Amino acid sequence: MVFSFIWPHVKLFLLHLAFFLPISPSARRNANYWLAFFGKWTLCDVLVMCALIGMFNIQAEMDVLKLWDELKPDFVHLCDGICAGNGSRPLGGANCTELCEEAEAALSTTLLNDATLPSSDLAFAVSMRGLTSMYLFCCAVVLSLSLGVAIEFLDDRQRAAAAAAAAASDGAAPLGFAPSVQAGLSDSGRGARFLSATAEAEFGGGEAAAPEWRPSAAAAAVGGGSGGGGVRGLWRRHERAAHTALVLLQLTLTVAAMCSPLFMRHVDGTLTAALKDRGFDFDGQVSMIQMGVLAGAAGGWDYLMATTYWSFCIVCPVVRPLSLLLLLHAPLGKWRPLLHRLSRYLSYFYAIEVMLLAVPLMHDSFGPMSQSLVNRNNLPLCDTLAALYPHVKKNAVGDPLCFSIEVNVDVGYWLAA
């Protein structure tokens, strides 16, 4: 309710207020940043639906004769249970047991044997398909996030133009900032002064030189006329090394989390137990990358959900730290301000933390949802299977479950956390 219906509208309302109200440029920029940053939490339900589509993509394939060999010992009992639960009288007045015995003999001698059916495969699949509203909601969330980035981009350009005009009118072209900002960056009482490029270069345009640190007399007195020696230079080298180590650690953990099992799918119930005894096992571990593949396996509009998932949970979480490493070490020159701004925008489309919240929601929703798909009310065979497999998990009223899917977190979840 909060992430799907309340926060999206509140976020857009606050975004409009920040854009139109007469507030200071710094307050507007901070508001745009935090609204864009927290706007990605509207993706929570979208990621849950991506996981639902992926986790309900259950497929199995088996040779028909092999399946018949597994099923034949219990065929009469299962058939008798289905016949008795149907409530209608068998043809010819025969009882259900006699009818099922005749059906088994007929299948074995006329159809399910090597002479009649030398080679065959039986394949079935269980999948979930979204309705139109789900795909429209996904589009609305992505457009809302993109709108926040577009407004911040326009605000950046407006502030850059205002700063350039103020600098030109006051004859302070070297800094490209308003006089109040220049005063704050003066070297009085500071060890160094940051000389930025012009405002156009700061926000991605123009041909001015890239930002660089230029030491003042105080910095040179400490022990480094070039800014690379002495106490300040040593501190800056250690700071850059620490920053690099942290980014590399974060990137390593992110990639490891993507490749490791994010959660484990456990399928339970009497129907599942019967299928497992005959060679069908639907349990398995799914990683974040596999989830993106499964989300778009059905094609069609599911490609939209899969693309959204890949963008927010795979691509941007990898590209963002790579951009930080480039900013730290690559000689980018005039492209540095542009890359810095793009890196900041990428952080708005970084949604692994949202996925971490979506996984517990899936854990709570998968069980009841899957139990409602197959139960004794829509499959009479469940009562017969309950007598054969009394050890399976019980539902809330104490009856054996016929079919249930549970999602439990795995090692990839804790690596991402």
Please give the structural blueprint.
Layout: H1 2-20, H2 25-39, H3 44-55, E1 58-63, H4 64-86, H5 96-111, E2 121-126, H6 132-169, H7 179-184, E3 192-195, H8 199-202, E4 212-215, H9 217-223, H10 230-259, E5 261-268, H11 270-277, E6 284-287, H12 288-295, H13 302-329, H14 336-348, H15 352-373, H16 381-388, E7 404-409, H17 411-416
Antiparallel strand pairs: 1-2, 3-4, 5-6, 5-7
Helix pairs in contact: 1-2, 1-6, 2-6, 3-12, 3-13, 3-15, 4-5, 4-16, 6-13, 10-13, 12-13, 13-14
Low-confidence stretches: 172-227
Q: End-to-end span in angstroms?
A: 24 Å
Q: Give the class from helix and strand content and strand pairing.
A: mainly alpha
Biggest sheet layout: 3 strands, antiparallel
Order of helices and strands: HHHEHHEHHEHEHHEHEHHHHHEH
Helix content: 55-70%
Mean pLDDT across the residues is: 76
Q: Whole-number radius of gyration? A: 32 Å
Query: What is the helix tally?
Result: 17
Shape: elongated
The side-by-side strand order for the widest beta sheet comes to 6-5-7
**How many strands in all?**
7
Strand fraction equals 5-15%
Q: What is the oligomeric state here?
A: single chain
Descriptive report:
With 417 residues, this protein is mostly helical. It contains 17 helices and seven strands. The strands form three sheets. Strands 6-5-7 form a three-stranded antiparallel sheet. A two-stranded antiparallel sheet has the order 1-2. α1 (2-20) runs parallel beside α6 and α3 crosses α12. It is elongated, with a radius of gyration of 32 Å.
